[in-house]
Amino acid sequence: xxxxxxxxxxxxxxxxxxxxxxxxxxxxxxxxxxxxxxxxxxxxxxxxxxxxxxxxxxxxxxxx
Length: 64
Known about the structure:
The chain is mainly alpha-helical. It is 72% helix and 0% strand. It has helices at 10-36, 42-60. The chain is elongated, with a radius of gyration of 23 Å. The model has no long low-confidence stretch (mean pLDDT 83).
């Protein structure tokens, strides 16, 4: 039997865990996005109000 040195891989060290975390977050957000996409749902109404207020604040800012 021959012994070999282990080679490190940055992709295995960081890429795989990052993909797993992104996948878990996406899985958790699916129900939220699905509910928020329904017309008249309280989540959609609330986020629409927040978005409208944010856009209104951006429009009021003086441009330099």
